[in-house]
Specification:
There is one protein chain. By secondary structure, this protein is an alpha+beta fold. It has 10 helices and 13 strands. It has a 9-stranded mixed sheet, sandwiched between helices. A two-stranded antiparallel ribbon has the order 2-3. Helix 7 runs parallel beside helix 8. It starts with a strand and ends with a strand.
Length: about 375
């Protein structure tokens, strides 16, 4: 068995931002439009009118202040409320592959590697652009990588679940160097016209290089001490979009074909699961939660992260202990904890412990315990 390190990370940041104020202005115009269209039903008492959103509501509910998106005009158009993307021919790089290649090249540079030194590509995200061929294989070709590639989806835990697969491949010797990419085009499955969740998501892509410690040359290496995955079925977060929709003769634009959740229930159920998962993982490695220098947690809700840390260490989470990127990036599904790790690790010293943890639909929870070399 080989020692394994994370030797480089990269991030693709989309060109457009949408502030809460912009989002609220567009959403409230949509509300006026819909309430006028359905005025008779509202007056007859058979339908409740839609209500306005506000900047204050969004920030109190989530801690989010803005988000990055690949395309914003469609999102902010009250008659559309989702992005406008141009269909690409089959001989052109797909959108997901394009942003993944960008993040991957940055991670390769950070690790001091080139594409032809990669033995496997794992493309892991909450939603895939197509059924096949796998985006991972397209990314593999674009980078000139060897070996194999495959796609995987465990919703918001996709990145940590993929990191375990990469770590296992390297540790057992079936690969020396593995690329994990998480292209999250969440704007495509976001219900931008639903007040309860119209503010939640943002687009991004992260990339991580996982390789044998004895082969790594990067100046910034993080030994993987252990990984731990868990799932428990729940319908509290769900998206029913899929290839069987047309066979069901169901409405492709129905509300259940985009992200939906029972937010309060998710908060109540996931926080204790995540805290217990991390505590058990650390105990198996003979480490106490208070010995961890930094927690890079899933970025879905500021209050959720605060409570997870409080359950672990008995104190409120400072930005030093559990850095927040949610305010800038919003919820980026599986990429959130990796963004936090990418942006907030340079100040740690050799020997410091850290935990990368994500949690989401499934329910699914994945944790990666690392130590700065």
């Amino acid at each position: 068995m080989h020692s394994v390190v994370i030797s480089g990370t990269g991030i693709y940041q989309p060109p457009h931002t949408i502030t809460n104020a912009e989002l609220v202005e567009a959403f409230n115009r949509y509300v006026d439009q819909e309430n006028a269209r359905l005025a008779d039903e509202i007056a007859a008492g058979v339908r409740e009118p839609l209500t306005y959103s506000s900047v204050e509501f969004i920030e109190k509910a989530s801690g989010i202040k803005q988000r990055y998106v690949l395309e914003k005009s469609g999102v902010l158009d009250p008659s559309r409320m989702y992005p406008r993307f141009t269909e690409r021919p089959d001989d052109q790089l797909s959108l997901m592959a394009e942003i993944a290649v960008d993040a991957a090249r940055k991670a390769l540079d950070a690790a001091g590697r080139t594409g032809d030194q990669i033995d496997a590509v794992l493309c892991s995200a909450a939603n895939m652009q197509r059924a096949y061929p796998a985006m991972a294989i397209e990314i593999q070709q674009a980078l000139g990588a060897g070996g194999y590639g495959f796609d995987m989806n465990v919703a918001c835990s996709s990145a940590t679940f993929a990191i375990e697969q990469a770590v296992n491949a390297v540790r057992t010797g079936s690969a020396k160097c593995v690329l994990v990419v998480n292209p999250e085009i969440t704007s495509g499955h976001q219900a931008w016209n639903d007040r309860d969740c119209h503010f939640i998501f943002g687009d991004v892509c992260t990339a991580v290089i996982v390789e044998r410690a004895d082969c790594a040359t990067s100046a910034d290496q993080w030994e993987v001490l252990g990984t731990k995955l868990a799932t428990q079925f729940s319908n509290s977060i769900r998206n029913n979009f899929g290839f069987l929709n047309r066979c069901e003769d169901s409405d492709p634009n129905a509300r259940d074909k985009t992200f939906r959740q029972e937010g309060r229930k998710v908060f109540k159920e996931v926080v204790p699961l995540a805290a217990a998962h991390i505590e058990a993982h650390l105990a198996a490695l003979e480490q106490a939660p208070t010995a961890v220098r930094r927690y890079w947690l899933h970025q879905a809700n500021h209050g959720m992260n605060q409570l997870v840390i409080k359950k672990l260490v008995g104190a409120d989470a400072s930005a030093d202990v559990a850095p927040l990127i949610l305010n800038e990036f919003a919820n980026t599904a599986s990429a959130g904890s990796i963004i936090a790790f990418h942006k907030h690790r340079a100040d740690l010293a050799a020997g410091d412990l850290g935990v990368i943890c994500s949690f989401g639909a499934g329910y699914s929870i994945g944790s990666v315990v690392v130590r700065k070399r």
